[in-house]
Amino acid sequence: MSELKILFAGDTFPVASNMELFREGKKEGIFGKKVCELFESADYSVCNLEGCLTDKGIPVEKVGPNVKAPTDTLNAISALGIKAATLANTHTLDFGSVGHDEMRNALQKYYIDFFGTGDNIDNIKSHITLDMKGKKITLYTVTELFAFNTPYKNKAGANGYDEYAVCRELSRLKENCDYLVVMYHGGAEMTHFNTPKIRQRFHRMADNGADIIISQHTHAIGFEEYYKNSYLLYGQGNFCFNLSKNISEFTESGILLEVVFGENGFDIKKHLVKRTKNGCEYDEKQNFSGFEERSRLYDRLIKGDKGAEDIFQKEFSDYCRNMWFKRLMRVFRGINSEDDKALAELSEREQENYLLSKFTKKQLSAIQMMLANDEFNEIALNFITQAINNKE
Prior knowledge:
Purple Acid Phosphatase, chain A, domain 2; 2 domains; eight-stranded mixed sheet; globular
């Protein structure tokens, strides 16, 4: 049997700065010559389509951006050679069922396969299976669910992570394929160190048959792990998703993952791509030193090294404080003009102290209990959903 080469690209979507290049199908203008050559050399390629391709859809009400582009921007994605797109992500349902249906119809028109969503909760297409060069490769995709991308009996949505259901399905799928690859959409954004829960989930999915698991959504490169006979990539970073004009250490580069499936297993090769004004291009430096250092550190952590565990915990705690503390405290306070005025005149540290001063220890303990307890969490989510619907 001959070898089979598949390329896995991270978050990909047209934005204002490169929209016309996508519409005109100018792949080298977006991705550069060397990246295009990598796709030409592959037998198959897949990306995460991080938005909604629609000409008619109406944006849903949500916190955060509604990401869209015209359907004809598929000209460049098709020209690059992308054969399939995962749709199980944060933005696929940004323009409701109309936008979702329009995007799937457009993908069909361009002969690009898709998976990860469905018209309703009973009709989710979670995977595709490739039968190429004497090998059966199943590609499976799943996302963490939010209110706006959750499927129901009468509403389109994404394949959501339910550990029992997902692991059961992976175990069943592995019985009928040679290799099982999971593209997981979730985890902490804008950090090189993914969460303990994600690492636990990856191990459980691997225990149930996943040979390769790739974490997307983080917009940042993380680290890798060889767990038993499986390869786990915690944070692939963006491929071509320049949604923000600001380039940070997290969004400046991503990994284009090349997997070669042979007779006796698979080989992994990582290619760094760096962000450019028009999209991305091959990074000639290919400097993986930070990635390799984090991977070694994680290897020490899982072997029980307390020092490595402390570093991971500190990185995650710092991330929580820097990225989410102020946002969450303002939500719990109830966003109001009094706080707006006060916070505008304070430094970052003073803003933290101001918001904390508005809560007693007992109030913080009540919030902690609500967030940590599954029962209270579910009850609160149900009640708030009803309240939102009643306001409509």
